[in-house]
Amino acid sequence: MPANRFNGQTDFGIGIGLRVPHYQHILERRPVVDWFEIISENYMLDGGRPLAILDRILEQYRVVQHGVSMYFGSAEPLNREHLRRLKALVKRTKTPWLTDHLCWGSVDGRYTHDLLPMPYTFEAAEITARKVREARDFLEVPIAVENVSSYAEFHISEMTEWEFLNEVVEGADCGILLDVNNIYVSSQNHGFDPYDYLNGVPAERVAQIHIAGHSKFEKYILDTHDHPVLDPVWKLYEHAIRRVGPTATLLEWDDRIPSFDEVHAEARKAEQFIGIPVVVSQ
Amino acid sequence: MTNLLEFQRRVAGAVMSPLNRSISAEANQLVKPNDRLTSTERLNIYHRQYWYRILDSFNEDFPGLCSILGERAFERLSRAYLADCPSQSFTLRNLGSRLATWLTEHPEFAGQHFALAIDMIRLEWAHIDAFDSAERKALGPEDLLELGPELRLALQPYVRLLALRYPVDDLRVQLNQHLNEHGAASNAVSRPARRHIVRRFARLKPQPIFLAVHRVDFTVYYRRLDADEFRLLESFGEGQSIGQALDSALAGTEFEPAELQQKIQTWFANWAQLGWLSSRPS
Ligand SMILES: [Fe+2]
User: Fold this and answer.
1) Contact between chains at A116 and B11 (C-beta distance less than 8 A)
2) What pLDDT digit, counting tens, does each position of A15-52 carry?
3) Which residues of A fall within a CB distance of 8 Å from B31?
4) CA nearest to A87, candidates A37, A131, A40
5) Which chain B residues contact residue A49 at CB under 8 A?
6) Fold of B136-167+204-282
7) In this structure, which CATH number among 3.40.50.410, 3.20.20.150, 3.30.420.40, 3.20.20.100 belongs to the domain A14-274?
8) How much is the pTM?
9) Which site among A196, A220, A280, B229 is 20 to 30 Å from A110 CA-CA?
10) Is the ipTM of this complex over 0.90?
11) Residue among B42, B157, B219 minimizing CB distance to A46
């Protein structure tokens, strides 16, 4: 499903995250990149250098917005100031779709600045779906929610993570940003089969895919985005492409960031999978 | 109240609680253990992550304050402040917005360096504000020819005016040079060098200064102002007309009339060149 209504009927290829250490290289050398993903919060400002650089990037590249603090899964209502600033940025970037995480992170107006895992309950799914719809109606742009990596599971959960994802996206009628690295990290931390997860995702709703590197510790795996993509994650990615079809894919590299060329080369490894035949599943 | 809200209050309460507090009771009730980690160990991953993230961000924002207090006292202050004033914004940029007020209520965290610390906090917070605040259309030299006494001017939102008791601007610039030479991360600064800077801070004598924190080509600068110049700009910022501002701000001037006339012309010329003034939105 290259183009669908969840990614604004676009057919983007392989992108990378726009990060400060690469600004100069990109502006001076103008590398050929299918598209950049920006962290919306870094540009939800009134002025200054970040916005000036973004404007120069927008003159030459396609940009998709990815957020980290909408907290669709927080029980409290959406933050109006946040939405207002986000909408101004959406107008600036003309992002064809917009993503944020299927998680929570604030309560009573206090922010953890983390992507905390949801309790997988029907009540939580309903609240989350409602907030996704509200955000989409206000922002007037398709929204896709991303599965997060997690280190804890809760007693009150009533279903698996992928069942919860289904509940939310069906209820909200929204897209999915499928992070295959996050599926792998969580599968190792919680002891489920990542292929069960992948096969349980509604393929027709996948708007975009994330790939990334992680770090293995003795007793758990941490989603660090500071490494090349590991082999089992490439295998999951291949499986995802077989199920979903060639889909806009983005490599996340957020820490210990190497040169632009190194990050771009790592991302372009995904090209070998993008052309593989789609298996019509189930 | 929803079950989700109740649940999230409990999880966030544990995650955001002081680092040395045990969260075992909440963890056991809320989080499932697995075959490698107990409930507490799993929730602790989030507890630690929360504190590392906000302490890191806070550290980056206030290196000058850290140098004044020394690392240990700075860490004590950071933990106490962030426990009292957790983030209320979707962006970590605003983490330090309440620091000056909080320290005034808790002067014991700065000990004998209280007044110096407050000045440095005001400078470092103004720096953050000046970096990404809005820029309005500036009045240029040609616009100044038409200014009448009735006109009301506005200061650019990115210009911050500070009346300080200590020349902390010089110290902050020195520290910046030092950090640039030895790596931006504060822990990369060698300990003897840091002690040297700290001693220099501790010896600093009071010397009232008037300062504008502003930006040129997206870089933040500190500019010393004459006392009269400072008061005049402040009056414009408060919405006084040019005539009112000249009367009130310059009532106690030490300059002779002819000299003052000359000064005023120079100030206006400088402000026009820097683009600090704009017309007041009606
Ligand atoms: Fe991701």
Assistant:
1) yes
2) 999 999 999 999 999 999 999 999 999 999 999 999 99
3) 152-155
4) A40
5) 131-132, 218-219
6) Outer Surface Protein A; domain 3 (3.90.930)
7) 3.20.20.150
8) 0.93
9) A220
10) yes
11) B157
